[in-house]
Amino acid sequence: MVFTIDIGNSNIVVGTVNRQGVLFVERMSTDHKKTELEYAILLKSAMEIHGITTNEIKGCIISSVVPPVTSVINRALEKLTGEKALVVGPGIRTGLNIKIDNPAQLGSDLVVDAVAGIAEYPLPLIIIDMGTATTMSAIDAAGNYLGGVIIPGVRVALDSMVSRTAQLPRISFEAPKKAIGKNTIECMKSGSVLGSASMLDGMIDRLEEELSQDATVVATGGIAPFITPHCKHKIICDDTLLLKGLYLIYNKNC
Question: Which residues participate in ATP binding (predicted)?
Fold first, then answer.
């Protein structure tokens, strides 16, 4: 059993994976102020809630876009398991053929998403990861990572709008009954939920045009379940994509 961790700007996704699949997925807030002991307690609690002991963990792997937190989490895992985690980065075997200007610039989360997507879904493939930022990755029929798109995240855009206006309230991610809102909150919900879904539909059209064929579209990330059901394109929502990718990369390197 492998302990898999993805450290994002807003959330840390943790879970355990074995040959049968993902055993659990949990999210915790990314906090630069937490110590290794505090993270160790949180990670141990997450395992205990799902009936997993540290003795069952045979290895750990981390992908991260927050380097200062990576080292803290790694030390926390060492406290729990006695072993340092494998960290996705330069020198790690992924098997992914990256065809962008500077492959080293590709975020580890996008690498991991792509590895899992290629292993699990028909190609060509568009992967949408909706977190602090919304990213879209394009993978061709031969399994080459061609590049992608980076868009301000739905929550980031909404929070920015609210903080810069005097009368707009904070709202939850709930779809309105109609696109034409009859009050401020309905209008905001329409813009944030239906507007984001329409943006994804439009970008999928453009990416498929450049791929010269229809693609399988897979979405992951904490915001995806709120937005993708309102898209007109068929989108597969896979909350465990990152963890499955980390497990595959762990096996390639260990």
Answer: 6-13, 132
**Tokens, residue 29:** 């807030």
Q: Which of 31, 101, 109, 238 is labelled catalytic? A: 109
> Per the structure block, which two tokens stand in for 234?
């068929």
| pLDDT, tens only, 150-178 | 999 999 999 999 999 989 999 888 899 99
Which domains are present in the chain? 2-87 (3.30.420.40), 97-240 (3.30.420.40)
- Is there a catalytic annotation at residue 109? yes
Q: Is 236 annotated as a binding residue?
A: no
Q: What's the token pair of residue 238? A: 């896979």
Spell out the SS3 assignment of 207-251: HHHHHCCCCEEEEECCCHHHHHHHCCCCCEECCCHHHHHHHHHHH
**Would you state the structure tokens that stand for residue 139, as one six-digit string?**
């993978």
* Global pTM value: 0.93
- Segment 95-116, tens digit of pLDDT: 999 999 999 899 999 999 999 9
